[in-house]
UniProtKB/TrEMBL annotation:
The protein's name: TctA family transporter
Keywords: Membrane, Transmembrane, Transmembrane helix
Organism: Micromonospora cremea
Basic and acidic residues biased stretches: 516-532
PANTHER family: TRICARBOXYLIC TRANSPORT PROTEIN
InterPro entries cross-referenced by the UniProt entry: DUF112_TM (IPR002823)
Sequence segments annotated as region (Disordered): 507-532
């Protein structure tokens, strides 16, 4: 009964006119950036973050969340119609979705992606509503040593799941933690790394880092590598799958939902890992393995369900522990903090309307996404005709204006330019900016709990091993680090993330002209050319 009462509170908040409106705006923008390759939800949330500071906290978070899970829907549209995934997690959808479109079955492929996404999103939101309160109750028992070990575990797992070199991911996290130390010491007030710059005494602005790293840097990278977009399907007919199709997609949708819900809580690329894992599972257990890569509808249903379920459950560690499982979740941490709310277990008790309103809005958003993604297919296809040379300068202009409006300080605009250039250089060097942002967000939390634990224990470092929760978390961190450096695990990780260039929303075409190249997924992924 308590759960039902909480959900009633959530829906009474989410169904307020302004919240429904901004939920619609969020999922609409999310679908749009999912459709348009080269932007992605991370850059979009980063650049819209300044605008949301004038909103009510629950309204801002509802819109930003809608952008994130809305992009998972939109990414499948271009993957199916033009063989160009708009979202990294939709890369595997193109393997069979585009083949279905070439066979004149784009309608059933799009409907399967939409229905699977809706079911997965709904089930995963139920899981979020059920699992979050007990986890938050457990988290309330954590002391400083436990939180330090938990944050350390999250950072190490993000290294294990990061694309490319684990050493580069570690370096990016270290750089992010270092940037997080800029400003006055949290206990003594001593300036650190400020170089006599008055603007740095309060620390580096989170919005400047986010907009620069994920907005400007990604746009610079995409301007030099504009993708060719060739529409195979201009009109979509017969959307509803046949009875045989419906029979074949039930199992993949359910299995994909379960996999995505479980993998979504992992730091890093949980949604990408979920979609590839679902595809591999469906191919392995299918009685029609020869159809995979040639238009198997299971190859659309499973991965799309998995990545959308993962998008919803990635909110669990954010809302219960205050730890981001994805770069967008790190931006959400910034949104919480700017609105004067500390994300974590206390949100449920201190801000129940916000917590349950955000969860209820996900159900509303999933319904809106089904209405947006099926009847409006033609509009999304026409959006692909917008030239990047027109689209990207407009995005940078609005991002700069939004950031400047926060404090009316030109220093913030210069910071955007600096971090944009830095992010572009890091991308060209093969370094993923996502771990840097996670380190930047979690670094101060890591330092604060480390020092607090040592103060309480009077400098006795054994407190991290004598507390059972901390000891277990440290053991898991060591195990994750060992697993991350194993050659077999490293090879499998590189295969899974071979389709992802940098961040969400930027993927290379995954279906080659020769249909025989579909015969083995692993072999095809190994043939993806190395990134810039």
């Amino acid at each position: 009964m308590e759960l039902l009462d909480n959900l009633a509170l959530g829906f009474s908040t989410a169904l307020l006119v302004q919240n429904v409106l901004y939920c619609f705006v969020g999922v609409l923008l999310g679908t749009a950036v999912g459709v348009l390759p080269g932007i992605g939800p991370t850059a979009t949330v980063a650049m819209l973050l300044p605008i949301t500071f004038s909103f009510e906290p629950v309204t801002a978070l509802i819109m930003l969340a809608g952008i994130y899970y809305g992009a998972q829907y939109g990414g499948s549209t271009t993957a199916i119609l033009i063989n160009l995934p708009g979202e990294s997690s939709a890369a595997v959808t193109a393997l069979d979705g585009h083949e279905m479109a070439r066979q004149g079955r784009a309608g059933p492929a799009l409907a399967t992606a939409a229905v699977g996404s809706f079911i997965a999103g709904t089930v995963a939101t139920v899981a979020l509503a059920v699992a979050a309160p007990p986890l938050a109750s457990v988290a309330l028992k954590f002391g400083p040593a436990d939180y330090f070990s938990l944050v350390l575990l999250g950072l190490i797992v993000s290294i294990a799941l990061a694309r490319g070199s684990a050493l580069k991911a570690l370096a990016m996290i270290a750089l992010g933690v270092l940037l997080g130390t800029v400003g006055q010491d949290i206990y003594t007030g001593t300036p650190r790394f400020v170089f006599d710059q008055r603007e740095l005494y309060g620390g580096i602005d989170f919005v400047s880092v986010a907009v620069g790293m994920f907005g400007v840097a990604e746009i610079l990278r995409n301007l030099e590598n504009e993708k060719t977009r060739t529409t195979v399907v201009r009109t979509v007919k017969n959307l509803w799958p046949t009875r045989e199709d419906r029979r074949r997609i039930v199992g993949p949708i359910l299995r994909g939902t379960g996999l995505g819900a479980a993998l979504g809580v992992l730091p890093g690329g949980g949604h990408v890992l979920a979609s590839f894992t679902s595809y591999a599972v469906e191919k392995r257990i299918s009685k029609r393995q020869q159809e995979f890569g040639h238009g198997a509808i299971e190859g659309v249903a499973g991965p799309e369900s998995a990545n959308n379920a993962a998008a919803q459950t990635s909110f669990i560690p954010l809302l219960t522990l205050g730890l981001p499982a994805h770069p967008v979740m790190a931006l959400m941490v910034g949104a919480f903090i700017v609105h004067g709310i500390t994300p974590g277990p206390n949100v449920i008790t201190d801000e129940p309307a916000l917590f349950w309103g955000l969860i209820a809005s996900m159900w509303i958003g999933n319904v809106l996404l089904v209405l947006l993604n099926l009847p409006l297919i033609g509009i999304w296809v026409r959006m692909l005709r917008i030239p990047y040379r027109v689209l990207f300068p407009m995005i940078i202009l609005f991002a700069a204006i939004g950031t400047y409006s926060l404090s009316f300080n030109a220093y913030d605009v210069y910071a955007i330019a600096f971090f944009g250039i830095l992010g572009y250089i890091l991308i060209k060097c093969g370094c993923e900016p996502a771990p840097l942002l996670l380190g930047f967000v979690l670094g101060p939390l890591l330092e604060e709990n480390l020092r607090r634990a040592l103060i309480i224990s009077r400098g006795d470092a054994s407190v991290f091993l004598t507390r059972p929760i901390s000891a277990v978390l440290l053991a898991l961190a060591v195990a994750a680090l060992v697993v991350a450096v194993l050659p077999t695990i490293r090879r499998r990780r590189e295969v899974v993330f071979a389709e992802e260039e940098g961040l969400d929303g930027i993927s290379t075409p995954v279906v080659p002209p020769n249909p025989r190249a579909h015969d083995d997924l692993d072999e095809r992924l190994r043939r993806v050319p190395p990134e810039g």
